[in-house]
Specification:
single chain; alpha/beta; 9 helices; 16 strands
């Protein structure tokens, strides 16, 4: 049984780095106390079902039940509970998340032999999860209606259309189309006009155990003739100047909640570098190309609809994710199409076709 423990130092300096030196490890009757040479910013513990970096190698299976720092910020105490092989294997395979301040515990996805610690806001940990629609046992797709609440997103030049409203209407149409197929289960990060920070959006999907994450948006540009839908996947290097512009605009949404993306980017970048995230990024790109192909006959698309950018909402490390810019709210033709029932139906139909093919292909490959 392997248990991986990751710790960050720099709690007082505000510049997180890997914890320096372990000064003392003390085994108690039902736990382990670890003392560091300087305060740690945070710690994460998660279980590994197969080989990986070993920090603690226990003689018998055990599960972390509690953990907390002492008042000096340097002494971490982990409470362990013994478990039989079946219980440990089940815990290691589950994708359910549990959060114990000041830790974020993430169980590894069944398709990965490792897990990742992400800086998830406390509010995301305690928020009630949305309802899952559909038949049990089906793959779960989480649809994220971009913006919401005090963040209206882009606004049409006429002033009568807001991105947050169009994305919610489109997300609801996609939900209904997917449920009508009977092939998947569906949940929405929001079903009303509420604000969610970017990390909270993909955190919801991960906590629900989603197998696909779709974030729905409307594009905007200074050029009123800019038109066409596009599909974005994650890359630390933008595919073009327009992709870089969009990432800068979308990532600023968290400023409305006092979350500064720049402060989080170093942590997330290090995670991406550490794990490379190759499988997930490849799966995301594959779905993006599939969606572009299925949407081509139904909705106006850019000439090369698949784009790449460093979008915060796509940074779940083990969840295939795309951001679907369904058209330009700054273009009168696109905006009218997206605001219409027929336009929303066609967007939803393109997503339904792509999702059906995506999961059918995955099932055939097993």
């Amino acid at each position: 049984m392997l248990m991986l423990l990751a710790l960050l130092s720099g709690w007082l300096t505000g510049a997180p780095s890997w914890a320096g030196i372990v000064q003392q490890v003390r085994v108690t009757g039902d736990g382990i106390a670890i003392k560091f040479d300087e305060p740690a910013a945070r710690a994460s513990g998660f279980l590994l079902g197969s080989a990986g970096r070993i920090v603690l190698d226990l003689a018998r299976p055990a599960i972390v039940t509690e953990g907390d720092f002492g008042g000096d910020g340097r002494t971490l105490t982990l409470e362990l509970a013994t478990a039989d092989e079946t219980r440990f294997a089940r815990a290691a395979a589950e994708r359910r998340l549990s959060f114990l301040p000041p830790f974020t515990y993430l169980q590894p996805a069944s398709r990965h032999p490792y897990s990742v610690s992400l800086p998830v806001p406390r509010r995301a940990a305690s928020a009630r999860l949305p309802r899952i629609h559909g038949e049990p046992g089906r793959p779960l797709v989480v649809i994220d209606a971009g913006h919401g609440g005090r963040d209206p997103g882009a606004v049409a030049p006429s002033g009568d259309l807001r991105e947050k409203d169009l994305t919610l209407e489109t997300a609801l149409a996609i939900r209904d189309a997917l449920l009508a197929s009977g092939r998947v289960r569906v949940a929405l990060t929001r079903e009303d006009d509420r604000f969610l920070i970017l990390q909270e959006r993909y955190s919801i999907a991960r906590r629900l155990g989603a197998e696909l994450f779709l974030s729905i948006h409307c594009d905007s540009a200074g050029d009123p003739e800019a038109t066409g839908a596009s599909i974005y996947t994650l890359s630390e290097v933008a595919s073009d100047k327009e992709a870089a512009r969009l990432a800068a605009r979308e990532n600023k949404a968290d400023a409305l909640a006092g979350v500064h993306v720049d402060e989080q980017s170093a942590d997330i970048a290090s995670i991406l570098l550490d794990l490379t995230q190759r499988e997930t990024m490849n799966a995301s790109a594959g779905f993006a190309r599939l969606l572009g192909r299925e949407a081509q006959p139904l909705i106006p698309l850019k000439a090369n609809p698949h784009r790449m950018a460093s979008l915060m909402v796509l940074k779940a490390p083990d969840l295939p994710s795309i951001l679907f810019e369904t058209g330009y709210i700054s273009n009168s033709r696109d905006a009218g199409f997206l605001a219409s029932r027929e336009g929303q139906r066609k967007v939803a139909q393109s997503v339904r076709k792509a999702v059906e093919i995506h999961f059918a292909t995955r099932m055939a490959a097993r």
